[in-house]
């Protein structure tokens, strides 16, 4: 725009096209407009054009980004948020660029991966856990440091869905979705673990074919000294009896 104003100024002074272009090269260097551009603007000024702005152009009318197509894409994503751009484009007979523009620009959505979590809790369960933990901490000083607890966990062979397979279209302000590891297979083993406030203190995989009951924990007192606090510390442990499958 600045060079156009200078071209008009030189035209008013009676300069030629060559003189005007040489002056622009001295001032702007490699960024100066070409001789052809200077000639075109001289011709416009001779024809009576006074402004240096481009005249408004209608341009190519939109053929795909229409309210109807936007609504159709929105309905498809509402039915299945895991659809790919190619699947939507093939179903609606539209180009990939048009579908991408509708989803990102008009619908303001992005495709993000789900975040793995052990399991989901309701708001009531979260509130109950927080209140119970607060009561224990208030009643007993250094309460967490006095606890040694144990747990059993079946360890399955998983075939989890990949993060790319879990991608969904979501609004920009929508939090990432969550997914649980629920796909389990026959191959499994039992893990017994003990831990305190500082972390894991002992763990052991139970051999296949072993029957797990209360007596199964007695040998842990000898193999893990810290676990003596659980077995001999007046802490009764009720463990369901189960037999691990043989491999």
UniProtKB/TrEMBL annotation:
SUPFAM superfamilies: Homeodomain-like (SSF46689)
Record's subcellular location: Nucleus
InterPro entries: Homeodomain-like_sf, Mos1_HTH, RNaseH_sf, Transposase-MT_Hybrid, Transposase_1
Pfam family of the protein (one): HTH_48
GO molecular function per UniProt: nucleic acid binding
Chain ranges of the Mos1 transposase HTH domain: 4-49
GO cellular component term of the entry, any: nucleus
Protein name stated in the entry: Mos1 transposase HTH domain-containing protein
Gene responsible for this protein: YK006_182
């Amino acid at each position: 725009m600045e060079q156009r104003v200078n071209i008009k100024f030189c035209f008013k002074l009676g300069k030629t096209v060559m003189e005007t272009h040489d002056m622009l090269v001295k001032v702007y260097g490699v960024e100066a407009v070409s001789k052809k551009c200077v000639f075109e603007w001289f011709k416009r000024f001779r024809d009576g054009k006074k402004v240096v702005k481009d005249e408004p152009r209608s341009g190519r009318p939109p053929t795909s980004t229409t309210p109807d197509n936007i609504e159709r894409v929105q309905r498809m994503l509402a039915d299945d948020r895991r659809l790919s751009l190619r699947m939507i484009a093939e179903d609606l007979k539209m180009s990939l660029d048009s579908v991408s523009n509708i989803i990102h620009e008009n619908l303001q959505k992005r495709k993000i991966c789900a975040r793995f979590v052990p399991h989901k809790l309701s708001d009531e369960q979260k509130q109950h856990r927080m209140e119970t933990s607060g009561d224990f901490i208030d009643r007993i000083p250094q309460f967490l440091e006095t606890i040694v607890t144990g747990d059993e966990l079946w360890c399955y062979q998983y075939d989890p869905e990949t993060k790319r397979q879990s991608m969904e279209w979501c609004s920009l302000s929508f939090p990432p979705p969550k997914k649980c590891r629920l796909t389990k297979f026959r191959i499994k083993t039992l893990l017994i673990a003990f831990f305190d406030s500082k972390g894991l203190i002992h763990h052991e995989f139970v051999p296949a074919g072993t029957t797990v009951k209360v007596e199964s924990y007695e040998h842990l007192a000898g193999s893990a000294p810290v676990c003596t606090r659980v077995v001999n510390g007046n802490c009764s442990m009720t463990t369901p009896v189960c037999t691990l499958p043989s491999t």
